[in-house]
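Hi R.,

As promised on Friday, here is the backbone we talked about, encoded as structure tokens. Could you run it through your design pipeline when you get a chance and send me back a sequence?
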């Protein structure tokens, strides 16, 4: 199945002091989604921002806001982020325990698309039973918590397996991949079956953001 390729720049690499302008620049340069990395200092060491930042970003763009929750107890945050304007909310398998399906249902009930995230060492087996509920499967290609890390190649078979599962069921779901993606490796990642490409450093460190986003989409 040929899901459309979407480029989702992560504002983790943006200038936080100029977030509105940064988001407007991403939109002008052809981004499809804005990926917002929410870190709580517990699930991962650093703290980034909360739902008020999402509300602030919302005022600067019409693009869908893709909120990646790297937080413990995400169920306590979901409604706040949905009300702030998140269009999709993804939660980590590793943060949800037995509650995962309920958290996914809660996201849906709040009116957002829902997704589950798996860390590099988490196998797809651990989310088989909730794939049907999800709109998106987000596969981490770095350990969460930091931008600018190196892509972990051994996650590619997981992307292929996920695409086989979705194609086998004849359902069009997004497979999103996050971390270490650049113009050199993006082709392999798409070939494996990912269609939503998150990228922080590659887009923000570029001298020509528009060209880089175009390349990531078309290479
Ligand atoms: C890492 C974040 C990623 C990260 C991607 O925890 O989820 O979204 O910002 O950034 P790059 O593309 O720089 O690896
Ligand atoms: Zn992310």
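Update: got your reply. Pasting your designed sequence below so it's all in one thread:
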């Amino acid at each position: 199945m040929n899901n459309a390729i979407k480029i989702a720049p992560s504002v983790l690499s943006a200038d936080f002091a100029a977030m509105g302008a940064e988001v407007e620049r991403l939109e002008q340069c052809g981004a499809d989604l804005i990926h917002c990395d929410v870190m709580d200092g517990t699930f991962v060491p650093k703290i980034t921002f909360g739902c008020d930042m999402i509300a602030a970003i919302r005022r600067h763009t019409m693009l869908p806001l893709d909120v990646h929750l790297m937080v413990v107890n995400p169920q306590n945050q979901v409604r706040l982020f949905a009300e702030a304007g998140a269009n999709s909310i993804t939660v980590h398998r590793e943060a949800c325990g037995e509650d995962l399906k309920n958290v996914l249902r809660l996201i849906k009930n709040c009116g957002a698309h829902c997704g589950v995230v798996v860390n590099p060492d988490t196998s797809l087996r651990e989310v088989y039973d909730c794939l049907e509920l999800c709109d998106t499967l987000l596969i981490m290609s770095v350990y969460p918590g930091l931008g600018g890390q190196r892509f972990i190649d051994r996650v590619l078979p997981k992307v292929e397996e996920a695409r086989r599962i979705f194609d086998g069921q004849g359902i069009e779901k997004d497979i999103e991949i996050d971390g270490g993606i650049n113009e050199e490796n993006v082709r392999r990642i798409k070939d494996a079956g990912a269609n939503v490409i998150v990228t922080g450093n590659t887009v923000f460190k570029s001298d020509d953001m528009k060209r880089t986003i175009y390349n990531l989409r078309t290479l």
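One thing I noticed while checking it: Strands lie at 6-9, 34-39, 65-70, 88-92, 113-118, 136-140, 174-178, 196-199.

Thanks again,
M.
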